[in-house]
Specification:
By secondary structure, the chain is mainly α. Helices cover 75% and strands 0% of the residues. It is globular and about 85 Å long.
Length: 638
Amino acid sequence: MPSDPRPPDRLYTSLSLIAATALGAMALYSAGIGLIDPKLHRAAGFALALLVGVALSRGRRNQSDNQAGQSNLLRNVLDIALVIAGLWSIWSFHFVQTQMEEALYDVSTRDAWPAFAGLIVFLELCRRLWGWGLFGVGLFGVLYLLFGQDLPGFLAHAGFSVKEVAEALWYNTNKGVFGSITNIVLSTVFIFIVFGTLLEGTGAGDTLLKFAFLLTRRTRGGPAHAAILASSLFGTMSGSTVANIVGTGTFTIPMIKRRGFTPTFAAGIEATASSGGQIMPPIMGAAALVMADLTGTSYLNIIVAALCPALFYYFSLFSAVTVEARRQGIAVQPLTIDDTITRVDIINSVLFVGPILTVIGSLIAGLSTSAAGFNAVCALLLLSVINPEVRRDPVRVWRSFLKGARSGATLLIAVAAIGILVGSLDSTGLGLKLANLISTVRGDSLFSALLIAMIGALVLGMGMPTLPAYLIIILVMGPAIQALGVSILTAHMFVFYYGVASSLTPPVAIAAYAAAPIANANPLFTALMAFRLGMAKFIIPFVFAFYPTVLIIETFSLLPFIWIVLRTCLCIWLFSSALSGYDRRKLSLLEIALRLVAAFAALALPVAVHLPAVLIGIALLAFDWHRTRPTTQRPETA
């Protein structure tokens, strides 16, 4: 007779609840109250994440497979084995680190057994929670260290013993599973994950949507423009493309369809807008926080550097929606009563504005990034009582806190796989070898080198969340880009953008696949639409790579900055209208070709190239305006 799976599930749920609470409490304590011993911090973080991860994977499995009997018994045994082996391996890390601090201690072959057990446990959890892509990345790191000496050419390395592999990937606080990236996530990123979920759970997200609809009520795109604005603000809370789509898309996509846009366009614009939330200051998600530590740049400078490129990106989306609305003949429609801003919404706007200002004020005052996050959480908790919904159901704050802790736990498990790759690349020098190879292929052309790096970044990042994608890309492609003479911040921003863009790149395009079911649209057509709408994201990194003044904080000069901003805006409009084949009227094939050529030439470095291109682009826009002027009854709002 089949065994009842419910008691084990209740046990794991209880353990997960305790572990998530402890993990969240540890994040709050380390961010704003006191320091935790580094080895204990990392060991405890992974131990708690292990319990949360096993419980979450069981929940997902139970939803997709309700089979009972022997299979459930086997799975229960495997889960118990994962927990025991994982805790054993984490204890071994803490023990060895303690021995290293107290006396001279060399990792032995005996220590390798728990290390490999830990690698297996966290790779399996990574497979369960994040899929085969990230699992494959971690597995590659282990196998490459073990057997890479037998590979041909530049891929071969000197060889590593089992003991050396364990030391590089497990018993190392600079690289590997417990390395510096884990420290960044635990000490800095985690508090912002909790902050983001609390911000959403206390009601700020609903208010943002309403304000977005109010601000865009007089535009042709209406709800499509509102989706862009809301996703840019919502994404700064969630830091996750899929969470952004779910949080805003379930509301905006049906309204975009009702305005007259096709389901494919509705899903595509939501996917594209949601993926850009992570490049929009002031929070920007986990990847920007990690970037600040890896580059040695203050988080405030990261925010400033990201602002102008992010505005370019959202300007391109607004342009794409405006052009599409004109093409489909969609007119401005009045604001409905359901979209009006109430007194409660105005009060609740403080829930968003107050904590964000707290973050910025803390950074300007010179506090650490983690302290800024802690202060923002405290401010949010104090302000949350102004929301009537929170007063009626205060437990929603607790649920949001737990949600944030669980999100942080799953991120830690992903970081374990990234840490394995870091340890492997650092130990073998493969990243530098790839940099030399790219340098040989590119010759003396910076553009061709960046193009190779872009393609490599898109391939490496396909199907992965932004933070793992960014870390993998910067580890593999970063040395090659910096070898071109590009600054470290510009190199990181370059790959960061393509880490985000990879979520829109067919055939994987996870953002499009998340949005398509909400709109009842074809996932592949949605992916192609999102790819077209987000094409500017593929151009903008080249702009700040060749014109670093756009990033403001490194080589800023006012007149060159204004000139490249104007040229980029012109390029974006020409490019968006050419891809749609429409501006104020349908464009001919010759006009489309001229717009594309002028758009790219307007960004060229030589004045002899970009100045004529700018004049041609302006002439094309003037011609289009002149052709439609006699039939225009009244001014249109874009």
